[in-house]
């Protein structure tokens, strides 16, 4: 009740939910949607294979306070082999004979790596307003308007957050966020909570695109952009279902429409796809590991089984199995293996 009063005070009161809409009771046609490899999107994933561990090692070297970095699970020999792949980033110096770390060389950043790190910090500073907006949108997608810091930490890379975002970013936006106790998940758990709803930001990427052409009204049908790899062909009945599904009204993911729509309807699936579409749009790389995206889906209140929507709509989402991981990519965000709109951090 306290949370309800809290949100009612900040958002100007709750409106009664609209009556349930029961459009198209059958959620999907009885047909199997095949998976076809997309070499361009696979390459978009594969070419970043070593980027995250390299970035983690860079942060560990240049931020000594970062203990327990992602490289800690690697054996010393594997770590040295990795470092030797990038002589332009890391300097390897033999340890002194009297050192306790005998046989373990000392690793130092090269001047080039230091320069890139400093450039990266400038990009974080120049993008902090846009980054705060994206993080606020993520909170507005959640039913309780709050998200565990442990979840945000897990998605920090995809959200383009600096490693010390809780100290360097959040305090600059007291009208956006506040850190509160996690409530029942242990004494040490913390959440990031929405302070004030922002109506201007509660507009999805689909709606912003439609507004550019003019004439769009809330609830109008909006068709998701679809792209298919060469050699892909939908069965005739699936294609007919998709065409009808695209003509259904578009429900904004920033509206809690999941509770007022028949969960067994095509309309519910369109809202689910809209939420997943918006989540991927909020990420700087327009992609995420499958488990992380599924975790986000649970956090924003999607019903169990929502992951089927990723399979039903191969023209919107693509699942890559490269680099021993399952990565979900938003097709419209890419042209072959390149981002259509590259975020400054992705440089």
Automatic annotation (TrEMBL):
Entry's Gene Ontology molecular function annotations: RNA binding
Domain PORR, first and last residues per copy: 36-346
InterPro entries according to UniProt: PORR_domain, PORR_fam
Pfam families found in the cross-reference section: PORR
Identification of the protein by name: PORR domain-containing protein
Lineage, uppermost ranks: Eukaryota, Viridiplantae, Streptophyta, Embryophyta, Tracheophyta
